[in-house]
Structures are given as C-alpha cells and as structure tokens.
Design a protein that fits this description.
The complex is a heterodimer of chains A (110) and B (116).
Chain A (H helix, E strand, L loop, with lengths): L2 E3 L3 E5 L4 E8 L6 E6 L6 E6 L3 E5 L2 E6 L4 E6 L8 E7 L8 E2 L3 E6 L1
Chain B lengths: L4 E3 L2 E4 L5 E6 L6 E7 L6 E7 L2 E4 L8 E4 L6 E5 L8 E8 L10 E2 L3 E5 L1
Parallel strand pairs in B: 2-11
Antiparallel strand pairs in B: 1-3, 3-8, 4-5, 4-9, 5-6, 7-8, 9-10, 9-11
The chains are: A mainly beta (110), B mainly beta (116).
C-alpha cells in the first residue's frame, strides 16, 4: 500500500529557514511531488524529485532519498506569504495516481 | 495563459439532488484527473480521463458517481442523489502528454460542494 506521513503543523519566523519532512511507503515509485496550497485555493506545483539528492529552485529546495523513503522541502528567507499548507505526494507505480499526505500547515510569524 | 478552470466554485445541493462539476483543462493538456478532499484529509484520487476515455476510475465510488471528458467541452464529474457525506472539495487537475516518469499535474481551484 501507500502511506504518506508529514507533520500536521509547523511555525516559523519571517526571514528564517524551515524544513518540512515527508516519509512515504510505496511498492512502486515514479517521483515525489511538493505542492503549496493556500486556504481555498488550488494546490500549486512546487517541485518534483525522482533521483536522490537536492533540487534547488530559488528560495525553495527539495530533497529525496529513495532508499529511506524520505523527502523534505526546505524554505529559505521565509515571507509572510509562505503561510500555507504544503502537500507531499508520490505517484507510486501508476505514474499518474498521486497519493497525497494530509499536508503540513505552515504559519510564518513576523 | 489560463490555468485549469473549475466551476462552480461553490455548489449547494439538498439530499437527493444531482451535482454536476465542470473542469476545463489547461490549454494543450489532454489528461484530466479528479480528486476529492474531505475536511482534515489529504487529496484522494478519484478518476483519470483522456478525451472520450476513462483510463482509471479505481478511486470512484461504485454508485452515484460518474465522470466524462467528451471530445468537445469540459470534463464533468456527476454525483447523483447526493448525500451529506458527499460534502467535500473536488479538485480537477490536468497534464500534458507524459514523458517517461514525469507527469506534473496542475490543479484548479476546486468546487466546494455542500449537501444540506
């Protein structure tokens, strides 16, 4: 089966760095996705990892370790607008059926 | 360059009525996916469609739910004889022709269905 685990909530301060962890268990693997979702809005694609290592994209970076079934999203220089839910998802063996975690609600305080 | 468009944004139905949710994929995308999000839960896959074809409906309830993606027009998720448990946010996503392994899905803003 597939099981995605990530913390329910996190709090950080404006300007700081925060790391949101995600663990997954899947019988097949076609990549690990991160999405950002503001309340009442569409999930927005942030990153995709299929190989081990760190992918950097501006203030956001994502890391994957396939052997450990582990990923994290790193947000640097936090801004108030980064307050949102961050969704971890894997595509398992199907390559199209995304399995999402429940999301991590990040609150950025001034 | 319009993204994935869903309408209506909010839909209120009484028990027993029908709900029709519409989704227009991003321009150039021929793959459509529907997901359901219950309160305090993650997005759950329902169905994957291409034009005039249902590819995978393994996440759809066996009764009352149906989906289509006609040759012309938007994809439709139809829920017949709605019950209170159908109250949720329904999200549509679309993607372009998939290259090996990488299939980025872009989401619409969702339809929030409330069943009274």
């Amino acid at each position: 089966g597939q099981n995605i685990d990530q913390p329910t909530e996190m709090t950080a301060t404006e300007g700081a760095i925060v790391q949101i962890n995600c663990t997954y268990q899947t019988s097949g693997f076609n990549g690990l996705f991160w999405y950002q979702q503001h309340a009442g809005e569409a999930p927005t694609f942030l990153s995709y990892n299929v190989l081990d290592g760190l992918e950097e994209k501006g203030r956001f970076s994502s890391f994957l370790s396939r052997s450990k079934g582990y990923s994290y999203l790193l947000l640097k220089e936090l801004q108030m607008k980064d307050s949102a839910s961050y969704l971890c998802a894997d595509s398992g063996g199907s390559n199209y059926k995304l399995t999402f975690g429940k999301g991590t609600l990040l609150t950025v305080n001034p | 360059n319009a993204g994935v468009m869903q309408n209506p944004r909010h839909l209120v139905r009484r028990r027993g009525q029908e709900a029709r949710l519409r989704c227009s994929p991003m321009k150039g995308h021929s793959h459509v996916y529907w997901y359901r999000q219950l309160p305090e839960e993650g997005l759950k896959f329902m169905v994957y469609l291409q034009k005039e074809n249902i590819i995978d409906e393994s996440g759809m309830p066996k009764e009352r739910f149906s989906a289509e993606f006609p040759k012309e027009g938007p994809s439709i998720l139809r829920i017949q004889q709605v019950v209170r448990g159908d109250s949720a946010a329904y999200f549509c996503a679309s993607s372009s022709i998939r290259t090996s392994g990488k299939n980025i899905q872009y989401f619409g803003a969702g339809t929030r269905l409330s069943v009274l």
